């Protein structure tokens, strides 16, 4: 049978951590020398802007960063402004810059999120696997990785793999986002398991009846 069409999978966006591209990298001095770890007197201002969620102000205050600690703060602000390329470059510089074990770990967490924001799932997974992330950081990263792998497997018509990834997501978080739950139901349908597909569409429809769930129920009932 021809695969049943599901709603177009949405590319999942990485979520910014609670603590808290398109412009030139400010990670090196104009001469090309690597930045020192500390010494830029604007650090407190930049940190205050970042903590307040004033990301544009943070970027403005940290232009021409003269130390890696300022660049590190700037990288989170760039990430929060959907500038993952700039964020990734800054995190890489900060991770190597001798700012201490905690900042090194969090910079690698930022690298992982920046990769995920660009749907570079396997690159993110490699960094995460080599980093001693906190439990919360690991859950956040693994959730997005499972989301992206499941969505990609569905797009490639690897329906059993998609189901496995979505099941792992649900086991990790205790729930499954509604758009992914609909995609999983279609994966069951396209994998030939109409009974499970109908059960899942019915559950979703009972929770909230929409055109998507009604369409899925009709497709699973043919």
TrEMBL record:
Residues annotated as region Disordered? Answer: 1-40
Source domain of life:
Bacteria
User: Bias category Low complexity: which stretches?
Assistant: 1-24
State the protein's name.
Answer: Uncharacterized protein
Q: What is the lineage of its organism?
A: Bacteria, Pseudomonadati, Pseudomonadota, Alphaproteobacteria, Rhodobacterales
């Amino acid at each position: 049978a021809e695969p049943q069409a599901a709603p177009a999978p949405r590319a999942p966006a990485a979520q910014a951590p609670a603590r808290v591209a398109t412009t030139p990298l400010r990670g090196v001095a104009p001469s090309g020398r690597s930045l020192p770890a500390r010494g830029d007197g604007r650090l407190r201002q930049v940190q205050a802007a970042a903590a307040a969620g004033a990301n544009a102000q943070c970027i403005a205050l940290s232009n021409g960063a003269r130390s890696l600690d300022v660049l590190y703060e700037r990288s989170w602000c760039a990430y929060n402004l959907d500038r993952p390329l700039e964020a990734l470059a800054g995190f890489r510089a900060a991770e190597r810059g001798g700012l201490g074990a905690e900042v090194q770990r969090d910079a690698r967490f930022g690298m992982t999120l920046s990769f995920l924001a660009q749907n570079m799932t396997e690159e993110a997974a490699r960094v995460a696997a080599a980093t001693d992330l906190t439990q919360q950081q690991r859950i956040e990263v693994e959730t997005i990785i499972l989301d992206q792998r499941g969505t990609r497997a569905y797009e490639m018509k690897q329906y059993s793999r998609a189901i496995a990834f979505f099941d792992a997501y649900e086991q990790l978080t205790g729930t499954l986002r509604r758009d992914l739950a609909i995609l999983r139901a279609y994966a069951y349908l396209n994998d030939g398991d109409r009974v499970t597909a109908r059960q899942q569409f019915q559950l979703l429809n009972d929770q909230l009846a929409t055109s998507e769930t009604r369409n899925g129920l009709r497709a699973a009932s043919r």
